[in-house]
Amino acid sequence: MQTLFGNLAIFVLALLVGVEVISKIPSTLHTPMMSGSNAIHGVVIAGAVITASLASTPAGYILTFIAATLAAANVFGGYVVTDRILKMFTKPKQSSMSTTAGAAS
Amino acid sequence: MTGFEFLVGVLYLASASLFVVGLHQMRAPSTARTGNLISAGGMVIAVVTTIVFSLVSSGGHWIAWAALIGGALLGGVFGVRQARTVKMTDVPQLVSVFNAVGGGGAAAVAFAAFVLPGDAGGIELTISIPVVLDVLIGSITFSGSLIAAGKLQGIISGKPITFPGARAVNILVAIVALCAGVMAVILRGNTLMLVVVLVAALILGVLMVLPIGGADAPVIVSLLNAFTGLAVAMAGFAINNQALIIAGALVGAAGTILTLQMAKAMNRSVVSIILGGFGTGEPVSSSGPSGEDLANVRSLTADDVAIQLAYAQHVLIVPGYGLAAAQAQHQVAELAALLIAHGVDVKYAIHPVAGRMPGHMNVLLAEANVPYEQMLQLDDANAAFNNCDVALVIGANDVCNPDARKPGNAVSGMPILDADHAKSVVVIKRSMRPGYAGISNPLFTDPKTGMLFDDAKKALTGITTAVKEYVSA
Fold it and tell me: Which residue numbers delimit the NADP transhydrogenase beta-like domain (chain B) (predicted)?
């Protein structure tokens, strides 16, 4: 019961932190933010690892395989596509910086 | 608690902190990319910690590890390939697919937590309740997100799909899912009941998204993102893993806020979108353009628009869904660059929900190398319209409908771009058809407005050619 309460406290506080952090993000960046938070829920792959360590039956192996496949698609794809989107946002910034900095580039 | 367990706890805390810091860095375009990398660093720590912890504490069977590695390779290759090749206009579908796999993955983890301990002694309530909730939410997210992605991609009709008695069927399936869930908890680990929850929730996900119109699909994607977060958090409760709980809660909060903001910007309540209200095909009064409306419309050619733009000092471009649908972001950027080179001040006025997901238009313009300093958000844009010579509205409708300031219609109270405050307005649109709110737009019949009826891409190419001739002559 104590574990449950500790976890519940963590859950509620993380929700509040999430609300606070996300509210500050301008609408310009809502697409990469959504895709970035999408990648974060790929952490479920850690759950797949724990499932693997507990599995010793065919049903367990199958569930491990399913969980690993789905979670890996989420986590790898999520981070790669977010980086691709954000790369385009930083590109014009770099070019304007190089024109002002001049000698630096 | 052993020293090793303490170390694992500290590393989980570090990875959770990196997720928060990473998200926080996404508040400015200049730091956002680093933020994503910081978040990815947190992910690496969380996964490596879990692998080491699992190997040391329980070991596990080699077949299970082979299944894990095989699955991770398969999923990873699929995910990375999709992420590398997706067109920027199709990002909403991909996000939806990643929601689906995330929710499905969480459901599978919870299912395993239920099945693997075996029959001895039954399962405690502190585990069975989050497991049932996870299987329920995760499965709804899995099937619902795939349907939403299908609608956005056009594989499934964007029109609301309903059948007689749909609502009764929905309620029935929901009751079956809930009853089976309660039974699974009471019976302390009844796998059959959990399978019933799984199947009912999968059906429920399909039934929930099918009646939702394509224009509302982005809101649903955002809502399902929040659902996935909650499912992952529930998986964390089920296997007592704090990394999953914290990350899941963060995503749950993010998705919820975005859903609410987006619904507000579209002037809809989340409840009415889910239950299906206006905009889902039912006829709305005063929908089509009347004959009188058409008589008042001033039609322009590409040459007219080119001259108007070349003579202007301040131009504001209002890109809308039509621009995204025609994939004309590169053409508009080319025209803007040409005008800027000619000494015209050109900026973009971007509505929060322009495009197919929140902030999507900014991504499309960034793809076409538009510096983000040129993209004005709602408030800044509305201040700029007062000093604007030409407002160039491309494939946008409801987001600049002045009727939003009047009470008593479908867009009343919706935050809009004040394009009608500009000295003159040019609207590029394929026809006079009403936007998705289904009402006519007085901006189009305003005496200072000229209409160019064409596909966004063709129209912009035509205007650019005309401006080039005009400038060189």
Answer: 10-464
